[in-house]
Amino acid sequence: MNSPVSTGQAIRRAVVAAALVSLAWIILDWAVLTATGPLAEPSACKNETGACWPFLAAKVRLILFGRYPFAEQWRPAIAVVIAGGLIIWSMKEILRIRTSGIRGRALLSGWVIGLAVCGLLMAGGVFGLRPVPSETWDGLPLTIMLATLSSFGAFWLALVLALARRAKMPVVSALSSAYIEFIRGVPLVGFLFMVFVLLPLLLPPGWSVNSPLRALAVLTLFLAAYMAEAIRGALQLVPRGQYEAAGVVRLGYWKTMTVIVLPQALSKALPSLANIFIAAIKDTTVVFTVGMFDLLGAAESAIGDPAWGGRFFEIYAFVLVIYLIMCAGVSFYSRALERAVSTAP
Fold first, then answer.
1. Does the predicted model carry a pTM greater than 0.70?
2. Which residue among 179, 204, 262, 314 has its CA within the 20 to 30 Å range from the CA of 106?
3. Confidence (pLDDT) at 78
4. Percent of the chain whose pLDDT exceeds 70
C-alpha cells in the first residue's frame, strides 16, 4: 500500500507535468499553429491571434545591431562571429585544463588578434571601412562585449581584492574591505549615473570618454567586488595544512598561492563564479538607463513602431531565447568544468 508521502509526491508531479504540458501547448499554438510565417505580407498578421513573425523579420537587424549604420551591419555580424569563436575556443581549452605552454600562448595570441580585428571592424576608419562612432555600437555586439570583457577583467581584479582582504597587512586588508563593501552597498545603476552624469562635469574641457568604455569600467569594478567575496569564501575552505606544508618546503607566499591554494580555491568557487558570470550577462541590460542600446534596449526601440499595431511579444520572445541560450550555456559549461576539475590528476 502506498504511503501518504509517496501519494502526495505523485500528485504534485502530475500537477507540475500537466502545467508544463499546458504551457508547452500554449507556446506551440501561439508560435507555430496559429502564427503567420516570416515570409508572409504584414497585412496577414492583422486578423491573427498567433505570432506575427513578419514583424520580427522586419525588426531583427534593428534588434541585433541597433543604430549601427544599416549598410555596414555586416561588420558587427562578423565581429560577433569572431567573438563567439574565441569564447568557444577558450571554453574548450579551459575544459581540457591544458591552457599553459604552447596552447595557452596560442589562445592569448588568438584573443589579441581577434579583439584587434573586432575593434577595427566596429570602428572602421582603416582599409576603406567607413568610420562608425562607438556610441552607435548597439545590440548584440555591445551585450557580448560588455559581458565578456567585464567578466574577464573583474575576475583578475577579484583575485587581487580577495588576497588583499586576507592579507596580514591591516592597511591593505582595510582598503580592500572598504572597496568591496562600498561597491556591494550601492546599486549598479547608481554607479552608472555617477559615471555618465558626474564624470563629464569633472573632466577638463574637451576631454571625454566614450560610452562603451565607461560602461565597461563600471561593470568590471562592480562585478569584481562580488567575485572577490566568492573567491575569499573559497580560500577559507582550503585546509590549513596546505599552507603549513608549503611553508615546510619554503615555497614562499606567491608560489604557495598560485601553485597550491588558488587552484583548490577556484575549483570550490566555480558555482558562485558561474552565477556571477550569468548575472554579468543580465546586468548589461542596465546600461539602457543611461542611453546605451544593448540587446534589450535595441529591442525596446524596435517595439515603438505604430505601423505594426503595438506588437511586442515576438520581439521579447526572440530576445528571451538569446539570453536563455547565453545564460544556459554558462550554466552547462560551469557544471562540465566542475566535473573536469574534480577528475583532473
1. yes
2. 262
3. 95
4. 94
Cα–Cα dist 11/194, whole Å: 53
The vertex-155 CA angle with 154 and 158, nearest 5°, equals 80
Nearest to 223 by CA among 173, 264, 275, 267: 275
Question: Cα separation of 87 and 90, whole Å?
Answer: 5
Of 73, 86, 75, 78, give the one whose Cα is nearest residue 113. Answer: 86
Length of the chain counted residue by residue:
345
Mean local confidence (pLDDT), 172-183: 92
pLDDT at residue 103, rounded to an integer: 67
* Exposed/middle/buried for residue 29 (C-beta within 10 Å: 0-12, 13-18, 19+): middle
CB contact at 8 A, 174 and 164:
no
CATH node for 133-343: 1.10.3720.10
SS (H, E, C) the chain: CCCHHHHHHHHHHHHHHHHHHHHHHHHHHHHHHCCECCCCCHHHHCCCCCCEHHHHHHHHHHHHHCCCCHHHCHHHHHHHHHHHHHHHHHHHHHHHCCCCHHHHHHHHHHHHHHHHHHHHHHHCCCCCCCCCCHHHCCHHHHHHHHHHHHHHHHHHHHHHHHHHHCCCCHHHHHHHHHHHHHHHCCCHHHHHHHHHHHHHHHCCCCCCCCHHHHHHHHHHHHHHHHHHHHHHHHHCCCCHHHHHHHHHCCCCHHHHHHHHHHHHHHHHHHHHHHHHHHHHHHHHHHHHHHCCCEHHHHHHHHHCCHHHCCCCHHHHHHHHHHHHHHHHHHHHHHHHHHHHHHHCC
pLDDT tens-digit series, residues 25-56: 988 888 888 888 877 777 777 656 788 888 88
The whole-number average pLDDT for the span 100-120 is 82
Q: Could you give the maximum distance between any two Cα atoms of the chain, in Å?
A: 83
pLDDT for 172 beyond 80: yes
pLDDT, one tens digit per residue, over 197-234 is 888 888 787 777 788 888 999 999 999 999 999 998 88
Q: What is the grid cell recorded at 221?
A: 569594478
97 — pLDDT class (breaks 50, 70, 90): low
